[in-house]
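[step 3/7] inverse_fold.run input=structure_tokens len=108
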């Protein structure tokens, strides 16, 4: 699992910001242009572009420019890697809690 740490660090750092989480949430419903992503956010377009750059650098999203429109979309691989890491931690804690429950049931 240590070999995934370099890939996971930028993902979790990118998701630590509420604006970037809002952008990822919006993109989870489908691709969107930069202008449509920026519209509901209370910040300038250059600020939104900086957030998008962080998300793209982390591997969470990718973008492509067609003509004058830049469209962003979720990149599932980075999200799946983070999801797998979280699921493995959850499974470990569930096993530990199950063992604790068994112990407590046997030793009232």
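[step 3/7] decode complete -> sequence:
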């Amino acid at each position: 699992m240590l070999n995934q740490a370099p890939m996971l660090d930028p993902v979790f750092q990118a998701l630590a910001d509420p604006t970037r989480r809002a952008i990822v949430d919006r993109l989870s419903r489908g691709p969107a242009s930069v202008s449509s992503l920026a519209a509901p956010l209370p910040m300038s377009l250059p600020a939104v572009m900086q957030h998008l750059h962080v998300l793209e650098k982390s591997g969470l999203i990718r973008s492509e420019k067609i003509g004058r429109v830049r469209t962003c979309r979720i990149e599932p691989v980075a999200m799946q890697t983070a999801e797998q890491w979280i699921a493995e931690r959850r499974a470990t804690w569930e096993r530990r809690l199950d063992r604790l429950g068994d112990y407590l049931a046997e030793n009232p």
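[step 4/7] annotate
Residues 76-106 form the longest helix (31 residues).
The mean pLDDT is 91.
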